[in-house]
């Protein structure tokens, strides 16, 4: 695959969205696990 044909903007956006979707529940679980209050 030619690297110049990859749309890095789309990849960046998908990566950012994935990180947010994964980090959201993780932060909630972490706070709840520590007995903290949201």
From TrEMBL:
Primary localisation category: membrane
InterPro entries: PSII_Ycf12_core-subunit
Residue intervals passing through the bilayer: 6-32
Cellular compartments annotated: Cellular thylakoid membrane; Membrane
GO BP field: photosynthesis
One of the Pfam families matching this protein, by short name: PSII_Ycf12
Domain of life of the source: Eukaryota
Membrane-protein topology: Single-pass membrane protein
A Gene Ontology cellular-component term: photosystem II
UniProt keyword list: Membrane, Photosynthesis, Photosystem II, Plastid, Thylakoid, Transmembrane, Transmembrane helix
Assembly, per entry: PSII is composed of 1 copy each of membrane proteins PsbA, PsbB, PsbC, PsbD, PsbE, PsbF, PsbH, PsbI, PsbJ, PsbK, PsbL, PsbM, PsbT, PsbX, PsbY, PsbZ, Psb30/Ycf12, peripheral proteins of the oxygen-evolving complex and a large number of cofactors. It forms dimeric complexes.
Function statement: A core subunit of photosystem II (PSII), probably helps stabilize the reaction center.
Family that this chain belongs to: Belongs to the Psb30/Ycf12 family.
Protein name per UniProt: Photosystem II reaction center protein Psb30
Lineage, opening ranks: Eukaryota, Glaucocystophyceae, Glaucocystales, Glaucocystaceae, Glaucocystis
Gene name per UniProt: ycf12
């Amino acid at each position: 695959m030619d690297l110049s044909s990859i749309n890095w903007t789309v990849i960046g956006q998908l990566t950012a969205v994935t990180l947010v979707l994964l980090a959201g529940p993780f932060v909630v679980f972490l706070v709840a696990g520590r007995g903290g209050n949201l």
